[in-house]
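Figure 3 (text version): structure tokens given as input.
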């Protein structure tokens, strides 16, 4: 291995260490307490080294959120591909979205700015909208299958996304004072009613 390749590999290793340290700190202390100094201490480098790789904390958060959206995108596609009808696909996609949110709370909070400022403004990537696009695709196919007006697919799918994301956000951020009746079964009933309405 040449000197250039060795240096490149070292840079990639340090960059990965920075991202991993930031995520580990966030899991133990929360995103709000994250700082460049804490990240530097965690990887046993000076703060200027961290700044060599990322302009600021926002850049680190954005990179981690992209990773979260990529992981979510993969889970949604896997869920969709297990079923053949648009109704089954829609149920599976929403279920996978719900499971991702509560199995990966730190990612989800960062990805959507729950309890913190949303990162990545103006830097949207394809993965950011994969859930909405998959919901739209299923909704459109169900409406078309039922012989209804497909012009309504965009509005209807947006309404479902808002309901799903809203319920998750409330449950994630207001666990102390929300009704015990708001749970996964409420979501399942909402999606079933949505499908019947198309």
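Below: residues designed for each position.
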């Amino acid at each position: 291995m040449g000197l250039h390749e060795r240096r490149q590999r070292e840079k990639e290793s340090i960059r990965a260490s920075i991202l991993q340290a930031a995520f580990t700190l966030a899991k133990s202390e929360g995103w709000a307490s994250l700082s460049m100094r804490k990240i530097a201490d965690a990887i046993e480098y000076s703060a200027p080294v961290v700044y060599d790789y990322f302009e600021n904390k926002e850049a680190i958060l954005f990179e981690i959120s992209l990773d979260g959206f990529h992981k979510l995108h993969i889970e949604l596609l896997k869920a969709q591909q297990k079923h053949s009808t648009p109704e089954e696909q829609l149920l599976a996609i929403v279920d996978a979205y719900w499971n991702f949110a509560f199995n990966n709370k730190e990612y989800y909070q960062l990805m959507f700015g729950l309890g913190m400022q949303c990162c990545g403004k103006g830097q949207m990537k394809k993965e950011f909208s994969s859930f909405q696009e998959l919901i739209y695709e299923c909704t459109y196919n169900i409406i078309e299958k039922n012989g209804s007006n497909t012009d309504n697919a965009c509005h209807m799918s947006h309404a479902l996304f808002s309901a799903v994301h809203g319920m998750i956000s409330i449950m994630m951020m207001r666990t102390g004072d929300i009704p015990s009746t708001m749970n996964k079964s409420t979501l399942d009933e909402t999606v079933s009613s949505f499908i019947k309405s198309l």
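The longest helix spans residues 3-29.
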